[in-house]
Amino acid sequence: MSIHINAKKTEISTKVLMPGDPLRAKYIAETYLTDVKKINNLRNMFGYTGKYKNHLITIFASGMGMPSMGIYAYELYKDYEVDTIIRIGSCGSYLENIKLKDIILVDKAITNSNYAYSQSGKRNSKLNSSALINEIIAKKACANMIDFIKGNIHCTDAFYGKVNINKLIKKYHCLGVEMESFALFHMAKIFNKNAACLLTVSDSLVTNEALSGEEREKTFNQMIELALETIISL
Ligand code: HPA
After folding, report:
1. Is residue 4 included in any domain, yes or no?
2. Residue nearest atom 9 in ligand 1 by C-alpha distance
3. pLDDT at 109 over 90
4. How many distinct structural domains can be found in the chain?
5. Rounded to the nearest whole angstrom, what is the distance from the C-alpha of residue 93 to the centroid of ligand 1?
6. Atom number, ligand 1, closest to the C-alpha of residue 156
7. Cα–ligand 1 centroid distance for 91 (angstroms)
8. In a 3-state reduction of DSSP, which class is residue 169?
């Protein structure tokens, strides 16, 4: 038990996949896992533990935004002794050549948020994902013929906000925008654990196109399978 998670300590695997949406966690657990048990229902932030190809893993939702992601990553790493979290989420694209349905493997999360300072008293605006996990993701993608693009992501506090997209592209090489990766990488750093982030492009800030619900589901499956294959080989 922790403040926001009512699972027993033994009910959470050391390997966790983290979608933002609790109903996506449910979908992943019901579609891909066997022997599934719902292990968290506090605030409807669902978590499930079950087996994928005989490996015990946990799927746990993060909610939206860095404050929510930060709470769950903190408690999973600290109170449940989780060693690896892979976020599987969606993002908006900042570039014409980063198209809907593309899969992004996040190298660095870039933020203008005060999140790191609020949490630790130290300012930081750029954090790396785990090189080791990224290497395995790349190998698994190759073996399963899944295309991906590796690059930086802008992690924002404000979905509806003013941004200087040109600066984020030119100075920080950001491919797109989402709202959770920086807090995940920050917690991994604080606790000396592993974190990675895969994203599917769900909308474009260049063309204003967005995936339909059905398209989202189908394309997310490739990213989910890539994350599952990676996490069981750790
Ligand atoms: N902005 C921020 N977060 C997102 C977006 C976006 O356009 N799309 C998916 N997550």
Report:
1. no
2. 91
3. yes
4. 1
5. 8
6. 2
7. 5
8. helix
Say how far apart CA 89 and CA 84 lie, in whole Å: 16
Residue-wise pLDDT tens digits, 1-11: 999 999 999 99
Residues in a beta bridge with 56? 51
For residue 180, report the distance from its CA to the centre of ligand 1, in Å: 10
Quick check: 44 and 38 in contact, CB under 8 A? no
What is the span of the domain harbouring residue 222? 9-231
- The region, left, alpha or beta by phi > 0 then psi within -120 to 50, assigned to residue 108 is beta
The span from the CA of 11 to the CA of 37, in Å, is 9
> Ligand 1: which residues within 6 Å by Cβ?
90-92, 156, 159, 177-179, 202-203, 205
Question: Does the residue 3 lie in any domain?
Answer: no
Asked if the structure places residue 2 within a domain, the reply is: no
Q: What is the pLDDT of residue 113?
A: 98
Report the C-alpha gap between 81 and 71 in whole angstroms: 14
> Quick check: is 203 catalytic?
yes
pLDDT at position 218 over 90: no
Task: Residue 111: give its domain's CATH number.
Answer: 3.40.50.1580
Residue 215: pLDDT band by 50, 70, 90 thresholds?
confident
Write down the pLDDT at residue 50.
Answer: 98
Of 83, 107, 157, 203, the catalytic one is 203
What pLDDT, on the 0 to 100 scale, is given for residue 216? 81
**Ligand 1 atom 6, closest CA:** 92
> What's the pTM?
0.98
